[in-house]
Design brief:
Blueprint (H helix, E strand, L loop, with lengths): L1 E6 L7 E6 L13 H12 L5 H8 L3 H13 L19 E9 L4 H9 L4 E7 L4 E8 L2 H10 L7 E8 L13
Antiparallel strand pairs: 1-2, 3-5, 3-6, 4-5
Length: 178
């Protein structure tokens, strides 16, 4: 596993140290060479890091880093760069996970309905009895209740439903598509 230790100050140049934990697995990075593993680990930590800073950390020029990142993008290894908003930091925001079981023939319609709704942030098809794992974020309890009444409860062919409100984040790794 690759870890990036970043020591920075607003006035000092950023120092980046890449270390490998002894005996740790490489997870999803095993299909990449050592340099690309280091580059992706740095970008997972800070997608806004400059080519120059990445180059300094991995021992390459800015131009070589840019070329490698473009190749990773073209191969689909790097899919996107995004801003992650923590709904718990927004006053009143509520975040829920839903487990939805449905009749097999209703899955495409349910997925279509959920994909069209802005309250839904993630949809995963999981193993088990026709299950979907759905994450939704609303401005508050009233909005989440409205989402439940107007969308979730009206989904066709739902056979079982559970809703869990997220109370706090314990561990939340960004950027990994598992």
């Amino acid at each position: 596993m690759i870890n990036g230790t970043i020591k920075s100050s607003t006035l000092e140049h950023t120092k980046i140290v890449i270390t490998r934990k002894e005996g740790a697995g490489r997870m999803f990075l095993s299909g990449l060479d050592e340099i690309d593993q280091k580059i992706t680990a740095l970008l997972l930590h800070n997608a806004r890091m400059s080519y120059s800073d990445i180059g300094e950390a991995v021992g390459l020029s800015r131009v070589a880093v840019k070329s490698r990142i473009q190749a990773l993008e073209e191969r689909g290894v790097i899919e996107e760069y995004t801003t992650v908003i923590n709904p718990q930091k927004i006053t009143g925001a509520i975040s829920c996970y839903f487990e939805i079981e449905m009749k097999p023939g209703k899955r495409p319609e349910i997925i279509r309905i959920l994909k069209e709704n802005d309250t839904v942030t993630q949809i995963y098809q999981v193993s088990g009895k026709c299950k979907l794992h759905v994450h939704a974020v609303a401005a508050g309890h009233e909005e989440m209740e409205m989402f439940l009444k107007e969308v979730i409860y009206k989904l066709p062919g739902v056979t079982d439903l559970s809703c869990n409100i997220i109370l706090s984040r314990i561990k939340d790794i960004k950027g990994l598509r598992l």
